[in-house]
Structures are given as structure tokens and as C-alpha cells.
Amino acid sequence: MQKNEMVAAIIDRLDRGAASISKDWATLYPGVATRFCIIDNLMPEEVAHEIYAAFPRDAEGFLTHAGFRAHKRVSSDFDSLPPALGSVTFAMQAPEVVRRISAFTEMPQLEPDPHLYAGGLSMMFQGEFLNPHIDNSHEVSKSKYRRLNLLYYVTPDWEEEFGGNLELWDEDVKTPLTIHSAFNRLVLMETNRRSWHSVSPVVAEGPRCCVSNYYFSDLSPNGDDYYHVTSFTGRPEQKARRAIGALDNAARYVARRLGAKRKTDTNIYHGKPPE
Fold first, then answer.
1. What is the pTM of this model?
2. N or C: which end of the chain has fewer CB within 10 A?
3. How confident is the model over 211-247, as pLDDT tens digits?
4. Could you tell me the fold of the domain covering 3-267?
């Protein structure tokens, strides 16, 4: 399926579910610091299978991030990947899609990121994870605030007990709400200074595949000017990782303020989005 056809399919699904999507977004969950909503069956099922089949089974060409913060494989190298992956990624950035999601979330002036700063494709295999963190507050130029994360899961028959699920935490990062990374499911979640989230360790053979996008805005989430790096901590039982994370976050904040580049800065997409 071409990008324009994917855009049409997404718009159709959003329009059919407009009332429930808006209601779900407005619903606040006790003990969860992050607003979110779930949109199931985003694409026709055969299209979702096509997208999954386009992921390389061995993550060939993907960059591996491995450390105490995370272990995952990522890529935005669409020039060397099957066209379906670029098409679905940039379909999420179509102006008409952005306008509808802006209306659902009541976030004005949302803009997609064609450079995919920290966005793109991710694959996670057995034993891989993403520890609790809050996302970098801005895009690569530090001029726009990160406001919304769009996570589209495409692994067929992925059961919740397989792990690799999105976790949304309370502000003290003590108790998570688990959101199953089910096949053909789009999750919208806000990003701000308290939107702690993580991905539970994958316990199945995998891969768990995801297409991610971020939307940005000139407007701060709460009206205040602020800046922070992607900041990690450990899970409640990981006391040492929590201590290491605090030091690591402070050191990377200072480095960024002094102009040091993140690894992600060299992994942004410079190609032309598919037609």
C-alpha cells in the first residue's frame, strides 16, 4: 500500500472513532501521570501484516542501543528498507492526520518531525527493554517542545505476557500501568516533565516491532520555559540503577548545555519522505 492510501486508511479510522478517542484521551487514570489513549485496528489487517513483514527479522541495518538505560534496535534508514516502512512512518505525519490528532488531544499548533529525532522504527528481542524515563523536552534544534508520542505496534499475535509492553508510571516511578503492545494498535501519549514511561523486558523470542513518531509545538506543555535531556531511572527494585541514573542524567544535561551532541543527533533522517 502506498503512503497516500495509508493516510486515507488512518483518517478513516480516526474519523470513525472520533468521539471515543476524544473521550478516552480526556479520561484520567488514578496514579498515572501521563494522558494517553489507545486506537485499535488502525490499519486494515492485511496492511498491518505487510508493515510487519517489511521489518528485517534479524534487525539487519538497525542500530543497537545497549546499556543500563535500554537495550533495543532502532533505525530511520528508510532508503535501505522496504518502502512500506517509510510509508507508514510518514503517513503519521500527513497534515490531515496531524490536524485530527491535534483536535482529539486539544493540543494546538502540533507539528510532525520529518527528521525523526528519536523517532522511526524499533525492534526488541528477548531480554531487551527500555527503563523508566522521560523523553528529551525538545527536538534537535531545541526550539520546539516535544508534546506527543505516537507508538504503532505491528507484531501479529503478540500476547501481553510476552513483555515488550508500554508502561506508564506515577510521578514517583513506583507503580506502572501496563498497556499491551498489541498488533495493529496505536497509542497516543503526552510527553512533558512528568510523563515517565518504559517498555517491559521482552521474554518471548520476538521481535516486537514498533513505528514511532513525535509531534512538537512552539507551545510549552504547561506554559513555562524549560529544558531537560532524556532522563532515565531504574525500576523500583533497581536501587543502584536509580542512583546511577540520577548522576548520568545530570552529566548528560551539563554536556548538552555545553553543546555536546547525542548519538541520536547523528541518526536523524535527512532523506526525502515518500510521496
1. 0.93
2. C
3. 999 999 999 998 889 888 889 999 999 999 889 888 8
4. Jelly Rolls (2.60.120)
